[in-house]
Amino acid sequence: MAEFKSGFVTLIGRTNVGKSTLLNLLVGEKVAAIANKVQTTRTAIRGIVNRENSQIIFIDTPGIHKPKTKLNETMIETSFTSIADTDMILFLIEATSDEIGRGDRIILEKIKESKRKAILLINKIDLVKREKLLKLIDIYSKEYNFEAVIPISATNVKYKEIILDEIEKNLKPGPAYYDIEEYTDQTLRQLAEETIREKALKSLQDEVPHGIYVEVEKMKQRKNKNNEDIYDIDATIYCLRNSHKGIIIGKNGEMLKRIGRMARIDMEENFGLKVNLKTWVKVKEDWQESDNIVKKFKLQ
After folding, report:
1. Distance between CA 156 and CA 133 in Å, rounded?
2. CA torsion, ordered 182, 185, 190, 192, to nearest 10 deg
3. Which of 128, 135, 149, 281 could be cross-linked to 120 through a Cys-Cys bond (beta carbons 3.0 to 4.6 Å apart)?
4. What domains does the chain contain, in order, with CATH numbers?
5. CA–CA gap between residue 296 and residue 300 (Å, rounded)
6. How confident is the model at residue 110, as a pLDDT?
């Protein structure tokens, strides 16, 4: 019988390159918030893939971008810290690039420093012609000795096993770090916060989402009158300005109801039981500079 392998794999790339979509594809469960907005992932989320002969623990890091606040700095620090502490790196770039851009260059230099095994994944291949793809592969292959270069579409399930096989091939023998039933080490509370934030990101105007932060104040399981298990969840969406508060609540509270409804449906699917979700909106102007809040986004 083949020897059991395990390891931690960091998924890194620029903002909006498709890391969270890829993580959810590989894990087969929704562990990372997906929204077509900058800074969707703020913490290093772990997704766990259990295979017959291996356990792969993925760390999805915040996208690399130019830091403007203490929160941004913490997020980037988290991304680079995880490179140094990992067994392997999945470096995700976009097929539409003509050269190595500034953000990708910073990541590439960190990978070189780490001397870690790395796989290059070129995402969104459906958007480019073959010649352009081959040129990009050539440019990156001259920069670093990648274990493999795999052109993919992160939304297409056919690439899942190709990527997992390549990772497993490069892992060392080791134990299962997590129970085989688990697919993330996030708590249900964290998953609830992530879900609400994702729905807000998808629903709100561009200038509002980066200024929001969700905190679950209460999460309690009980039986309802039909003897079904139900979670009572009270959550607050914090924003930076009063004008933002109005946008999040919406006319007659419609926007907040919509965010809550979408989040509740997702949670019920993920948690496997009914959810009674109540949401509030509060203004906290300086939260992105608050040490108490920002420390929640550091790599644990």
Report:
1. 18
2. -10
3. 149
4. 5-170 (3.40.50.300), 188-297 (3.30.300.20)
5. 9
6. 85
